[in-house]
Amino acid sequence: MASIVIRNLDKKTIQNPNLSKPLLWIFLENGLDWMHACGGKGRCTTCKAVILKGEENLIPKSAAEIRYESQNQLGPTERLCCQTKLTGGEVEIEVPEASKLPHIRYSA
Ligand code: FES
Predict the structure, then answer these.
(1) Is 7 a domain residue?
(2) 96 C-alpha to center of ligand 1: Å?
């Protein structure tokens, strides 16, 4: 069964997400407020997440992700949630400091 676990949002788990949609849209459809300054177009890095487990269950990095990684704006364990999709299985992520929204209480 496919699932997305967000560790520092009290391990919020989204079961059976729509695998045809990028993670960002799955979060928004599930009522999660997630930073996305460029509107999900791959033109900023505010939607990034740190991948803690299950990187192999994500699609390959997009051209935008590779470009930001080469510019050191995206770390090797980070992905842009507007660019990446789950292929199946589980992925566990967390919101990095730079992408935390001020009105949300994040857990450890
Ligand atoms: S929302 Fe801007 S890159 Fe994802």
Answers:
(1) yes
(2) 14
